[in-house]
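for the writeup, i need someone to sanity check this before i put it in the appendix. the sequnce is what the collaborator sent (i think, or maybe the updated version? ugh). structure was predicted straight from it, no edits. if anything looks off just tell me and ill rerun, i have time this weekend
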Amino acid sequence: TEIVTLSPAAVPTLSLLATPVSVAQGGTAVLTWSGQNVTSCSASGGWSGARATSGSENTTPAQTTTYSMVCTNATGQTVSQNVTLVVRVELVSVNLSVSQTSVTSGSTATLSWNSQNATSCTAFGGWSGSRGLSGSESISVGQTTSFVMVCANSSGSASDSETVFVQQSPAFARPTISFSVSPQIITAGNSAVLLWSTQSADSCFASGGWSGQKSTSASETVSPSLTTTYSIVCTGPGGTVSES
């Protein structure tokens, strides 16, 4: 009698890796696998179908995905592995700033913007059209205008805005004042004359070494006992002006 001893089939092993293990939406990872003591392999989950017993494959999932593989040896023994590829949702942000928020009509303002995790940026409002993911642009502003920048990626969008206010030309001329003292240097107890005149002002007020409401053009004698500063503020429809 002869006894035949059969050697047991070698135990199958399988290695399945994703590199990297996490990508942003739209990013690509490489799946790498290697089977030992196997004759066939099959993929399932995020991929499917027969595969070689070892190899690599690129994948670009839209969301977090698990990839599975089962390999079999000559006697039907199986081994399986799973790997999960995490897809990160990258939130978009954008910052828009302006060099001047208030200008006169026809003046230029510079708009600057930068974004994070965006794939596209578009301008709306006082400007329009596609823009780079960051940059700056000078624009002539004729009237009060709002500028909007919207940046987006496959996960969503974000926006920021700035308003440039246009100053209207004043309806009235700005007041002017001429204010002098003669003489400027005196001995204690002596007098000096304050002399002032204005244009486009309708009221004046004194402060410092004197006080109270004053005429828009006049003179006044003062006799300070020590060095003194005299100030006057005059106001008209076009604004306020002061002198000392």
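The mean pLDDT is 88. Residues 32 and 106 are 62 Å apart (CA to CA).
thx in advance!!
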